[in-house]
Amino acid sequence: MSNKKVTKAFLITMAKALGIKGAHAMRKADLIHAIQRAEGNNDCFGRIKNCAVDPCLFRKECQG
Asked: Is the model's pTM score more than 0.70?
C-alpha cells in the first residue's frame, strides 16, 4: 500500500478504532500483531521472509 513507515501514534489510533486495549504500553511489533489479529489477518509482521502479501500496510517495515 505505502512505502512509508507507520508511526506508533498512527498505530495507537488504529488500535483504538479496533477496540484494542493497552495499546500505549505495547511495543510497536506487538501492536502491529494485535491490529493484524483484530482485522482478521494472520499476525505475521516480521515473521515471514519474502512475504508475498501485497498490499499490506506494514510491508515496508516488515520486508524492508
From this structure: yes
Write the DSSP string, 1-64: --SSPPPHHHHHHHHHHTT-TTGGGS-HHHHHHHHHHHTTS---TTT-TT----S-TTHHHHH-
The series of mean pLDDT values per 10 residues for the chain, 64 residues long, is 78 98 96 96 92 87 85
CA 27 to chain centre: 11
Letter for the amino acid at 45? F
CB 24 within 8 A of CB 18: no
Q: How far is Cα 50 from Cα 57, in angstroms, rounded to an integer? A: 16
